[in-house]
User: What shape does this take?
Amino acid sequence: MVLKNIARAVKNIYKPPITRRYPEVPSELPDRFRGLQKLDKSKCIGCGICANTCPNSAIKIVRARVSPDSDKTRWFPAIDIGHCLFCGLCIDQCPHGALSSTKVYTTGVIRWTHEELLYTPDMLAREVPVGENGE
Assistant: This one.
């Protein structure tokens, strides 16, 4: 067994390393990757279909401001990212395409308390910063 491992190491000594240098070098994600959701408030009608289709009941419909500089409120989805399966059913069932999937998966998701994982409509619409780089 030891000789087999030494032979394998000698054989691969001039090949480029195959280990990933994450997080220094981010991994390349496929086109259909489902990361943190993004909400387009102008398209959302607050129908609640996303909340009804969520298999983990991670989505609740809450009242929130229509825009940051407006006092008018409407119904929008709020997502508990700690319970989200990232299955994409909410995105598929949205009749107006208000919810979409992004490629954000670590900067906006890694949190230490459950309250930080409750994403309000303002956070989903990226009106307030979500991650370290504001994405």
